[in-house]
Predict the structure.
Amino acid sequence: MLRKILAVLLVLSYTSCFTSAFLRGLKHKYALQKRLNSGVSRKTEGTKLYFKGRPLSPVTRVNRHDSIILDCEVGGTPTPTIHWLKNGERLSQGEYRDFHDDEAAYEDRVGRKGKPLLRLSSTKSKLFIDCLIPETEGTYSCIAETPYARIERSSKVVIDNEKYNSIESCLVKKSLEGESARIYLWTSARLEFEDATVQLYCRAEGKPQPKITWFDRNGKVITDEDEGYKVADNGDLIIKQISWMEHMGLWKCRAENANGVDTKETFLYPTARDEDDEFPL
């Protein structure tokens, strides 16, 4: 058990997914949840949501007809989702995106016999803005959410109209070739108790619509015939009854269409419960 605990600490330190303060808070949260009888309290007490990585610049200055990428990363429990706004209006990333994808939840919310789960995750998102024109200017906001919390960061995109690239080359390339497959939302790290069902995000945009393929930690393609796995319509991977021996490691998501390929990795770490149900850190 001690060896596994040390492995958890080393892995979390290596991935920089979870802050030490958050892990200490999670330990106290877990102990407290054991004493709570209310189902509502069991779901809401001690939830956490926070931004990670480099923050968005308050102002992003670009040349006319340029293309830019805005990055956003969050950590928390339960597993957070991310979407984007422009001037307060929600953006649709990709022609085929359905906003209901954000609410598509397949993983377990409680463990066996009603025991609480960790549901500890890091989520990343990219907003691709192509062929900028004056109408593209505005305030873009990254919105991170769980069922119990919401936080946001914003950047004002300002275009320098004195400097510009050829709009024709940008638009012609998009119209003739379509758009390359690009992953705009994915799970970068996930920590959960063994035997739970987890959902790993992987959502992509592009034209034609990208095909999503998942690879297990050994590089094997996951198919519909593989028992214990399911690739959802939105591209997410659902893994049932995770275990440290079978599932710990890096999983890869690939989005591909006729115009390009994009790949992202997810680190999954299943951990065992202590026999007394105390959080093992």
Observations:
- The radius of gyration is 20 Å.
- DSSP finds five helices and 16 strands in the chain.
- The domain at 2-271 is CATH 2.60.40.10 (Immunoglobulin-like).
